[in-house]
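Posting this for the archive.
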Amino acid sequence: MFADRARIILRSGKGGDGHVSFRRELYVPDGGPDGGDGGRGGDIIFEVDEGLNTLIDFRHRRKFSAKDGQPGGKRRCHGADGADLVLKVPPGTVIKEAQSGQVVADMSGDNKRQVILKGGRGGNGNMHYATSTMQAPKYAQPGQDAKELEVFLELKMIADVGLIGFPNVGKSTFLSRVTNANPKIANYHFTTLSPNLGVVDLEGGGFVLADIPGLIEGAAQGAGLGHEFLRHIERTKVMIHIVDAASVEGRDPVEDIRKINHELREYDESLAGRPQVIAANKIDAVLEGEDPVGRLREVFEPEGIRVFPISAVSGEGVKELLYYVKELLSQLPEETLIFRQEYNPEEHFSGETLPFTVTKSQEEADTYLVEGPRIEKMLGYTNLESEKGFQFFQNFLKDNGILDELEALGIQEGDTVKLYGLQFEYYK
C-alpha cells in the first residue's frame, strides 16, 4: 500500500543528571567534590534516503524516541551521551507541527539532513559548584528535560512535470511509453492508486514525470481518490493535461479540462496558473469526420495552452509533445519548490514558561506559599548555600513577579515565605 502521510510523536533524549560525590581516599580526609556531569540526551534527526518513495515505515509505529543521557559518576566521570535517533524519509517529505500545520522542515533540495529536536543538556556535577565559602556543595544540576513534539509527515513528490486528467484517459499508458516506469494498466477507473514517477530521456537532457491518480469533480473538497494525491503536483513546474479526444466513454474533453482546472484552482490558486500542455489522446480511435483536436485548439490555444494530438498506444505525436515540454522547462527556473520553515521547535521550547502559584496559607498565620513547576525547576539548579546562588534566587523572585504577587496578597516584613520545604522571612 502506498503511504504518503503519517502522524507520529517525536521525543528527544533527556539529559543525564549531574552527580554529587566527594573524594574519599586514604590520607585525603577532606577530599573535595568530584561529581561528574551528566551526558547529553540524543537528538531526533531526519535524513533523506533516495531509495525510499513512501512513508510506510511510519504507518505502524506511533512514537519515536532518542536515548537519554546517562547520569554523571564519581571521580569526575562524565555520563555517556544518549544515542541520536536518525529517521530515514524519502526526498520531498514535508514535516509539519501536527496542531498548527506549520512547516517544521522540508526534506528537499539541498536539505538532506536536519535536526528536528535537540536532546536535553546534561546537568553539571557538584564539582562545578565549589567556592571559597562553599567547599563541599551537596548539590548537582539535573539534566535538561526531554522535548516531545507531534508532527505530521506529508510526502510531496519531486517531479518536473505532472500528468493530470480524469481516470481512464491514458495517463499510465503514456507514462509507460515515455519513461522507464512500469505502472499497472487496466481499463477501469482509478487503476492508479499511487503516484508513479518516471524519467523521460531525451537528446540533450530529460526530465522527471509523475503520473497523478485520476481526479474527479469535488476532489479539492475531498471527493474521490484524487484529493489524496493533489499534494504531489504542488512542486511540478509544468502539467501535461491528458484527455480522451475520442470520447470513448462519452466524455466531453473540453468540459473535462475545465473541471480539472477548477479542482486545481480550488486546491491551490497557483496550480491553475502553471504552464499546461494538452495531450489529446486516443486519436487512433477518433471516428472519421470528427475533429475533436481542432475544437480543443480553438478553445484553449487562444489561452496560451498548446494542444498536441497523440496516441499513447501507438506513440504517434508523443515525441513532438515531449520536446515541447522540454523547451517549456528550459524557460523556467531550475529550483525545486521548497516549503519554508514556519515553526522552529527550539524557539518554541526555549520560550516555554512553566506555571507557579503564590497563595496565603490557610493553616499558618502570616505564612505564604510559593509553589509550581517553575519554582521546583529553579530550586533544582540553584545552590542557595552560596552567596552567588542566593543572589540569583532573590533576582528570580523579583524578575518573575513573585515579590509583586506577595505584596498584592498583603505580606508584611517578618512574615514567612515557604517554597517546598524551604522557608524565609520576608524583608523589603
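The longest strand covers residues 148-155. The CA atoms of residues 402 and 408 lie 10 Å apart.
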